[in-house]
Amino acid sequence: MTSPSPHDRSRKDNDEDDPVEQMISRTGCAELHYAVQECMAEHQDWRVCQSQVQTFKDCMMYFQMARKEQLMKQRQQASTESAPS
Length: 85
Description:
This protein is mainly alpha-helical. The protein is 73% helix and 0% strand. It contains four helices and no strands. The protein has helices spanning 12-17, 19-27, 30-43, 50-82. Helix 3 packs antiparallel against helix 4. The relative contact order is 0.09.
């Protein structure tokens, strides 16, 4: 019996339970993550997939910076709302 490929995106039931998949989906970078996985499955050599890895990395960095800015704004707003007038 063969096990299912970890790169098979049709396995929705397993993906829904995977916290890493859920986290990546929330970033908006899921398709880029899948592109890295597909490249690795096809070539079996991470050096060949550097453009996909870099694009995914850039997407994740952008998401992290945007999230950090959002959290900082929320903290500033909360501190100005709680400050005495």
